[in-house]
Amino acid sequence: MASVSSSSRLSKAVRQQYMSLPQGEKCQVTYIWIDGTGEGLRNKTRTLDCEPKSIDDIPEWNFDGSSTYQAEGSNSDMYLIPVCMFRDPFTLDPNKLVLCEVLKYNRFPTETNHRANCNKVMEEVKEHCIWFGMEQEYTLLGIDGHPFSWPSNGFPGPQGPYYCGVGANNAYGRDIVECHYKACLYAGVKIYGTNAEVMPSQWEFQVGPCEGIEMGDHLWVARFLLHRVCEDFGVVATLDPKPMTGNWNGAGCHTNVSTKQMREEGGLQYIEQAIEKLSKRHAQHIRFYDPRGGQDNIRRLTGLYETSNINDFSAGVANRGASIRIPRQVGQEKKGYFEDRRPAANCDPYSVTGIIAKTCLLDLEEEEESQ
């Protein structure tokens, strides 16, 4: 039996007795933010007198940053600035989830608030209508840290039958995946799809297409929903880029990119121009593609298990061993998008989309202006 949390064994029938109580005109609003690790999510809930109609109706709040790795105890009040509102799939309508930016006491962004800088970049490239789609891979673990449903003293069969697999011997934890999917749809997250991945207990969901800053907002809330759903089931979702050593696939967050010019007839030339610019800034991008400046991705980007080598830049049509993949259909139609396969599963989507937009569009514009 998989190792699940004690909380997940509490009576759901008793819980439902209270959850079904009326709440009058009041509205519960859960504030969500990224903590000082750059990976963890925190949340807390307050009552508003009525249902907010827009993000402008959500007041700022604060929290103790010394307990979230974001401040010292002597000056620990941090500001929560609401930026994006969703429906709450756990306490249901009219209650809301609100994603927030975090500001320090001086109202400057915290070190792990990468949204602020990303938003500036997206405003500068707004005319390009840049779309993103991110493929979030993750691995289900028991609370003992062992992959969910793996033998307690061994390993499952080798990779092969698990990718997009079906059947109790191939798909581990599908209930979690399907509940997460429904929670995203209810909340209003732009979830595109989901599938079982190559390693058993590893899954993927896709979010997008999203334009500009919306990509980071929706992926972070999708991650929050994943962790909350897993909490209800008593298991853990890890975004570690290489949760198991040996002959097992790692976990990435492949990022698909398309501008207005790339989507139009003859757009392939703009895709190729973007790839050329990306090739010149490979090392810098690697530093932005995981929370530890590339140290996490070293374990994953080995050139094996459908990855490129972290030290080399490569691109190719339909090549899943390349840094950048041009889908075969895009190569045939001469327009569309490209896929950056380098970002790690635990990347910050604001950092990833921000530097991609900056490299592909802002530098290109500066070169054109100087000619």
TrEMBL record:
Domain of life: Eukaryota
Record's protein name: Glutamine synthetase
Organism the protein comes from: Dicentrarchus labrax
Stored InterPro entries: Gln_synt_N (IPR008147), Gln_synt_N_sf (IPR036651), Gln_synth/guanido_kin_cat_dom (IPR014746), Gln_synth_cat_dom (IPR008146), Gln_synth_gly_rich_site (IPR027303), Gln_synth_N_conserv_site (IPR027302), Glutamine_Synthetase (IPR050292)
GO cellular component, one term: cytoplasm
Top EC class, one word: ligase
UniProt keywords, alphabetically: ATP-binding, Cytoplasm, Ligase, Nucleotide-binding
A single GO BP: glutamine biosynthetic process
Domain GS beta-grasp residues, every copy: 27-107
Major subcellular site: cytoplasm
Reactions that this protein is recorded to catalyse: L-glutamate + NH4(+) + ATP = L-glutamine + ADP + phosphate + H(+)
E.C. code: 6.3.1.2
